Amino acid sequence: MLKQTILATIAVFIAWSALDFVIHGLLLADTYQATAHLWRPEEEMKMPLMSLVTFIFASGFVGIYSYFINAKSMATAIKYGIVFGLTTGVSMGFGSYSYMPIPLDLAITWFIGNLVEVSIAGAIIGLIIKPVNSNL
């Protein structure tokens, strides 16, 4: 189980990093430029810290599924990803919108992007983490 958990964590981290690049680096680039006054200049951004945060989040996401969910299957993993994505997406998108002067379309994109990313991560862990066979 530990090898599966480590492999799933690495796979989720890589997937989230790639999807973050597409969502934030490409799809939202114009929105971020239009709201540049809200963000650090690119040269001041803490990208190593963001990578660490992403890795810790991936570790927690995978760890919860791996160690606390007993009925492991692709369907369970996808449902887990969707529920986790809905809750974290609401927090990231609309929670941020409630106290930051960001455009509503940015909040909606953050919500949808988070939901998509975490749902995909659910499918990834469903592929990698299999139930422990008690007959062995």
Binned, the helix content reads over 70%
Please give the alpha-carbon distance between the first and last residues.
Answer: 14 Å
Q: Outline, from the CA principal axes?
A: elongated
How big a fraction of the residues is strand?
Answer: under 5%
Number of strands: 0
Report the structural category.
mainly alpha
Order of helices and strands: HHHHH
Segments where pLDDT lies below 50 for 5+ residues? none
**Average pLDDT reading:** 94
User: How many domains make up the 3D coordinates?
Assistant: 1
Q: Profile the largest sheet.
A: none
Radius of gyration: 16 Å
Count of runs of 4 or more consecutive helical residues: 5
Q: Describe it for me?
A:
By secondary structure, this protein is an all-alpha fold. The chain has one domain. It has 5 helices and no strands. The mean pLDDT is 94.
Blueprint of the fold:
Elements: H1 2-27, H2 29-34, H3 47-68, H4 74-99, H5 104-128
